[in-house]
Amino acid sequence: MNFPTLGQLAQRVGGEVQGLTSLPIHGVAALHKAGANDITFAADEKHLRLVSTSAAGACLLPRNYRGDKTAGITTNLVFVDDPQDACLTLAREFRPQQPPQTVGLSAAAHIAPTARIGQNTQIYPGVFIDEHVEIGDGCVLYPGVFVGHHSRIGNHCTLYPHVVLYPDVHVGNRVILHASAVLGADGFGYRFRNGRFDKIPQLGWVEVEDDCEIGASTTIDRGMLGPTIIGEGTKLDNLVMIGHNCELGKHNAFASQVGLAGSVTTGDYVRCAGQVGVADHVHLGRGCTLGAKAGIHKSIPDGDTQIGYPARPEQEQLKIVMATARLPEMRKTLRDLESRVEEIDSLIEQLTTQGSSS
Amino acid sequence: MNFPTLGQLAQRVGGEVQGLTSLPIHGVAALHKAGANDITFAADEKHLRLVSTSAAGACLLPRNYRGDKTAGITTNLVFVDDPQDACLTLAREFRPQQPPQTVGLSAAAHIAPTARIGQNTQIYPGVFIDEHVEIGDGCVLYPGVFVGHHSRIGNHCTLYPHVVLYPDVHVGNRVILHASAVLGADGFGYRFRNGRFDKIPQLGWVEVEDDCEIGASTTIDRGMLGPTIIGEGTKLDNLVMIGHNCELGKHNAFASQVGLAGSVTTGDYVRCAGQVGVADHVHLGRGCTLGAKAGIHKSIPDGDTQIGYPARPEQEQLKIVMATARLPEMRKTLRDLESRVEEIDSLIEQLTTQGSSS
Amino acid sequence: MNFPTLGQLAQRVGGEVQGLTSLPIHGVAALHKAGANDITFAADEKHLRLVSTSAAGACLLPRNYRGDKTAGITTNLVFVDDPQDACLTLAREFRPQQPPQTVGLSAAAHIAPTARIGQNTQIYPGVFIDEHVEIGDGCVLYPGVFVGHHSRIGNHCTLYPHVVLYPDVHVGNRVILHASAVLGADGFGYRFRNGRFDKIPQLGWVEVEDDCEIGASTTIDRGMLGPTIIGEGTKLDNLVMIGHNCELGKHNAFASQVGLAGSVTTGDYVRCAGQVGVADHVHLGRGCTLGAKAGIHKSIPDGDTQIGYPARPEQEQLKIVMATARLPEMRKTLRDLESRVEEIDSLIEQLTTQGSSS
Fold it and tell me: How far apart are alpha carbons A71 and A79 in whole angstroms?
């Protein structure tokens, strides 16, 4: 491989070099990982402080860091508008390139006669598309994708291997569904009668709005009646569970292993850290944030940050957690106090006796 | 579409209309979602109270609510024996219909010569059935289903796309396995020797009894020796983990993301809410209930309800949780008491000194 | 079936029989499950104590238990070097045998022209291998396995059905990937700008070193830049989540449903029990152990055992848990003390008044 120079790379991202433009660059790496021929980036002052001790050959920095802020730094620097963007642009140059494949509609896929497929959509071998499915333009359906009857997929969607859409799942535009995500399986609904669980038919559907991204092996159940909704721009990480008839607002972001029971609703801009659990019929208010492993049994007001299990407002919970850490000590203090009060009681009794006898 | 009238729909479910029989009905919806041409249902007094404020065109109610209980309600009503059942019956009429497909044994499936398949069983393209497999009558195996050698499936089972049965998995009758469920993977068993984990061969099997339903991406590991058992009528939600050699009783119901370590046993009618975790070799007694996120390290008596982490009987835990909320305040009270006792001590010393000096 | 005798079985594992060599053995079972014609094993004194009450026809024991330790036991015994190993050897004899299949490179698989496949590697129908993939010798890729372009797999690996390797995933030798494991999906990385989450391209890769075993439906995300690494000999159970740019040391063992956020690093020999959650950028020190459901927000020192949420050193946490159980009682004690101090205060006031009035 003929490696590009720092100067050449700087040119591609509109950057100004301070240092050795002739340095050959072998790759892109994170700040703490980069070696003598790697380029890295620092986007804020916290990371700027680590540049001097980094072994990186070169570092991309915000343009306004030129001057005093980088005075003592001997690392080769490249000043750009957006260091992270620039770094990712360069990273792409060092990746093994795979020309976009034009598999068209593979003969080894099953496409039902009543299905309609848009322009420039790639259907890989092993895909199964059932009757009355509609798929838009510019989509890619990787091997093993299953699309149940009457499902609809918009334009420019990517369905990674083994994604399953049960019947009547509606996916908007520019949606990314990662491998083995399952949309539209039956909700967990039973009636307990005569000592058995009778299945309640799950007759609803799923709607995933534009610009959503759904993680690997995440499951989104269909509604019992009506839809389960994932609002526009919402991002779900891997292994997330969304129960039947949940309705998520726009631009939510849920980290891995979050679980929502049935009929949970959320406002826009709700964020859940990993492994959060939410009970059924709860409402998570617009812009609220839930800390990792939080357990939610009651609705959360707009904008609130709650943590812990059972979840409480952050400051309140932190005070409780701190106090909890002192519990063994408090218990000891309490026992000491009890003894002292015992002693005091007997002293007072003595005094009282003395007083009355005197 | 030519919409049916309320009167026509009422007839189909044996209902008596109180109101406008000529109202055209466009669909079925939940009580809080239903519009002027939707029909909904209310099955109990709690939901009955919401009918007046609902925008629903019509509402199915229990027959014995006719009269006083519905006196002031102006919504069109239909009285039936079982409102939820009736509502679901009507919901089916409004769904896009997909005639049951007769794919037979698809030529694009792999069926080993020694496999035996019953009558009216549908094997979709992309299914793989290994040697010595037995499958009963009236089953449906969707694309991507894998059935390992010597596995057995009873009658009238549904295996959704990409369900994987490792070898020697035995599935009863009328079992539903949702997409990407994995039954029979190796249990997590190793011996730590010479600084490495040596794999313990997992030579057991899995038994799923009649009428079970297993959720999407749920995993049930095979036993090391002997079976892992899912008892008759048991329902597991999505993303549940059942470790090797677990033996679940009949009619258990586990919500999403529950995890059981190895060799857990359960009685009949055990219920776990979401994200419960159970340590290995624990027994969950018949009819016990575990609250969401409960962490179980010790066996649970029959009929007990436990919550929290570590789990405790519900009433006990609730008292602890309430007391915990008061901890910061208790800590302050404790410090105040300490100071007061200090003061009292010195007052008493004074008094004692006065007493002895007097 | 013609059952072997205890004597015949003992010979196969180099064991010495104490008891009835002619006993026909029908199968192998766990100690508490074994019947009159089953053989079982006990590897330590704890299990030895259960042998007498077991219904087992015969029991494998460590050779050095011959003599005093087994004096009163009437069960048929077989003394061997390693009872568990011997038992598993015998278990294999009773399993339905499946001769190793030689499917070769199935014509019903898709293998890209630029892919290179080693000797004796079995590629089942329905496998998809993309361009520039390299796979070593003696591997088995079951139906539905997807291998993205430029991915590499070493020798003697097993990829169970529907395993997905995105592009640029590197797997070492003797690695086992269970059904529906997903390696190399995009990390959960976004920049929040103008009210939307913009996707940060995930340009890194995944490295799984030699002798790892990855559970069913476990997901390991690719790095943003650089690799996500699973160190040699590390074992992950089912439904585990490993975030982007995590770097796991050698011989880690994580039980089911553990979740690591991005950029977590671990030393060698780290153990996590089920449902542990670890925040991003945390370091788990060499040889540390985390209890079930532990929530980790700060780095853990080498060799530490931590439990609970928030996690604390085990002994400290146990004290807190015990004290927590006493909280309602402590609260009562505290209130009692308050009243008593009130009383004391007024008594003292009386005394003081008396004192001054006297």
Answer: 13
- Measure the CA–CA gap between B66 and B202, rounded to whole angstroms: 60
Integer Cα distance of B225 and C90 in angstroms: 11
Rounded Cα distance between A180 and A164, Å, is 7
pLDDT digits (tens, 9 = 90+) for B188-238: 999 999 999 999 999 999 999 999 999 999 999 999 999 999 999 999 999
- Facing residues of B123 across strands? B105, B141
Q: How far is A4 from chain B, CA to nearest CA, in Å?
A: 43
- Give the nearest chain C residue to B257 (CA atoms): C257
Please tell me the predicted confidence (pLDDT) of residue A93: 83
Separation between Cα atoms, residue A276 and residue A342, nearest integer Å: 47
Q: Cβ–Cβ contacts within 10 Å for residue A156, how many? A: 19
Give residue-wise pLDDT tens across range A205-234: 999 999 999 999 999 999 999 999 999 999
State the pLDDT at residue B335. Answer: 92
Test B98 with A319 for CB contact under 8 angstroms.
no
Q: Is C244 a catalytic residue?
A: yes
Tokens representing A234 are 């919402």
Q: Residue C10 has which token pair?
A: 């003992």
Interchain CB distance below 8 Å, A179 and C259: no
Chain B nearest C-alpha distance from C188 (Å): 19
Torsion of CA A203, B142, C176, C272, to 10 degrees: 10
| Pairing verdict, β C277-278 and C295-296 | parallel
Please provide residue A82's backbone torsions phi and psi, each rounded to the nearest 5 degrees.
-140, 95
Interchain CB distance below 8 Å, A201 and B88: yes
Token pair of A140, please?
């890619």
Helix, strand, coil % over all residues of chain A, rounded to 5:
20, 25, 50
Residues C72, C89 contacting (CB under 8 angstroms) = no
| Residue in the block written with tokens 């959320």 | A266
Q: What is the C-alpha to C-alpha distance for residues C127 and B179, in angstroms, rounded to an integer? A: 18
Per-residue pLDDT of chain A (358 residues; tens, 9 = 90+): 589 999 999 999 999 999 999 999 999 999 989 999 999 999 999 999 999 899 999 999 999 999 988 988 999 999 999 999 999 899 888 876 666 678 999 999 999 999 999 999 999 999 999 999 999 999 999 999 999 999 999 999 999 999 999 999 999 999 999 999 999 999 999 999 999 999 999 999 999 999 999 999 999 999 999 999 999 999 999 999 999 999 999 999 999 999 999 999 999 999 999 999 999 999 999 999 999 999 999 999 999 999 999 999 999 999 999 999 999 999 999 999 999 988 888 888 888 777 565 4
Token readout for C3 is 């059952």
- Separation of alpha carbons A358 and A339, rounded Å: 28
Strand partners, A192: A197
Who among C191, C225, C351 is closest to A29 (CB)? C225
DSSP B342: H
How far are the Cα atoms of B228, C20, C47, C66 from residue C40, in angstroms, in the given order? 17, 15, 11, 17
Give yes or no for a cis peptide into C313 (omega within 30° of 0).
no
**Residue among A191, A219, A330 whose CB faces B239 most closely:** A219
Give, for C340, the enclosing helix (H) or strand (E).
helix C327-357
Classify residue B263 as left (phi > 0), alpha (psi -120 to 50) or beta.
Answer: left
Question: Min CA distance, A90 vs chain C (Å)?
Answer: 10
Find the CB nearest B337 among C33, C215, C341: C341
The CA distance from A186 to B216, in Å, is 9
CA gap C190, B319 in Å, rounded: 42
Strand C196-199 relative to strand C190-193: parallel, antiparallel, unpaired?
A: antiparallel
Q: What share of chain C is helix, strand, coil (3-state, %, to 5)?
A: 20, 25, 50
| Chain A residue nearest residue B33, CA to CA | A226
Strand-pairing partners, residue B5, are: B24
